[in-house]
Amino acid sequence: xxxxxxxxxxxxxxxxxxxxxxxxxxxxxxxxxxxxxxxxxxxxxxxxxxxxxxxxxxxxxxxxxxxxxxxxxxxxxxxxxxxxxxxxxxxxxxxxxxxxxxxxxxxxxxxxxxxxxxxxxxxxxxxxxxxxxxxxxxxxxxxxxxxxxxxxxxxxxxxxxxxxxxxxxxxxxxxxxxxxxxxxxxxxxxxxxxxxxxxxxxxxxxxxxxxxxxxxxxxxxxxxxxxxxxxxxxxxxxxxx
Length: 241
Known about the structure:
- By secondary structure, the chain is of the alpha/beta class.
- The protein has helices at 22-25, 43-56, 81-101, 113-121, 123-135, 148-155, 189-200, 228-239; strands spanning 5-10, 31-35, 59-63, 106-109, 140-143, 159-165, 203-205, 211-213, 218-222.
- The strands form two sheets. It has a seven-stranded parallel β-barrel, surrounded by five helices.
- Helix 3 packs parallel to helix 5 and helix 7 runs parallel beside helix 8.
- 46% of the residues are buried.
- The mean pLDDT is 96.
């Protein structure tokens, strides 16, 4: 079994909108991805999330997205590469500045939502994203095991952590099942734990029922999904055995 890092997308609340339960999730994680204000998050939430991560010794990551709070960053946007670079640099810099101001450091950067999938198929988009991470001196990028994001990360000399998902279904292509389709999310704790168990062994069961090889170093649990804390606790117990 491979030792796997458990991460979650946190800090996604903003103003009067509460997303997820960061206080219960944080103690169960190895690393977290903190929203930078574009799909979720605000200055106060960012500060609270960073402080919570520092309290529990959880590695902090920047979680930039398309500028699309209306759709929670889950709608693809066509943005010219120079503008995308600026948008990424802005968000990463905000999280990095706040983290360092509070006595911590940023361990990694991971794109959010539609940006995550867009970058993996776009050479120019991935280059803009990774260049923003490199300019910010962020050493690690989280992303899909194969694709343009990994290629560009390694080209720029940064460390790449291939990521799996505890609570999302995989297609036989090893792409995540579209959220527009039934069964895209694994909200059953037993199913999520079993998926992580398989990922530990370098495999995953796809929607066709077949087992496929996949190698990951970190596994994501979505903090905004209902019941995330209960799934995180069960996964933590598995990873600790």
